Amino acid sequence: MKISELFKQKKVVYSFEIFPPKVNDDISKIYKTLSELKDVSPDYISITYSAGGSKNSRTKEIAQIVKDEYGIEPLAHLTCINSTKQEVANALQGLVDIGVQNVLALRGDRIEGEVKSDFQYASQLTEFIKQNSDMDVAGACYPEGHPESANIVEDIRNLKIKVDKGVSHLNSQLFFDNDDYLKYLDMVRLAGIDVPIQAGIMPLVRASQFGGIVKTTAAKLPAKISRMYSKFADDPEALMEAGIAYATDQIVDLLSSGVDGIHLYIMNNAYVARRITENIKPIIDKLNGVK
Fold first, then answer.
1. How many CA atoms lie within 13 A of 128 on its CB side?
2. Using 50, 70 and 90 to split pLDDT, how confident is the model at 56?
């Protein structure tokens, strides 16, 4: 099913994001994660491309597992900055051949010595996909602005170009301040961007995340998250529970504010995904009219 249809059927779309193992790593770990997530029943699962944009990504392989073995709709990531049009066309056809109907169009990370001239922006990739397939194309948006944009206004202008090229829904980069996100939504809507937008939520449940992913994305940390880290950083179990509680509270507030959906960055942690889903499922069911 195309994800655009899900947004027509539901008030709230709820999804997970996972990442494939590296080419030489044991694939059984991702099987275990997917097996533990099957009965949680997200609306779809997004599968990232390899870190750094490696062409040896196992995205297609995992997308097929998600679709055929677990019966969950996959959203396969596709990057372009390090690829030619022919290479992108081949990757796209590979996804079509296994029945994938949804792709997330991303520029990707530049790899020194491999950057090509065919694509420079995700908007160009979006246009290429729409011209060469019947795929639904999702896009990324950045509530705190893309790190390479001069300012948030410029970033939203570029986002409008991407949507005009054919993006049917957007997943936001992770954020931790709901007020900032809701202000961003107001700006996006004023710019004439009317596609559904899912709020990207990453539960901070390990001390390593504070110095790794959060630092990489440059996401702003509210004072209460900093206090949480200072208090529980040396107690993994307490930090896990505090992180789950914070993410749950964040999601409940967003749902109360009428967001289109929640996209949970689970870092392949089925336990965290299950706990948060248990906490919010009655609310999502209520909003979607499920009795």
1. 27
2. low
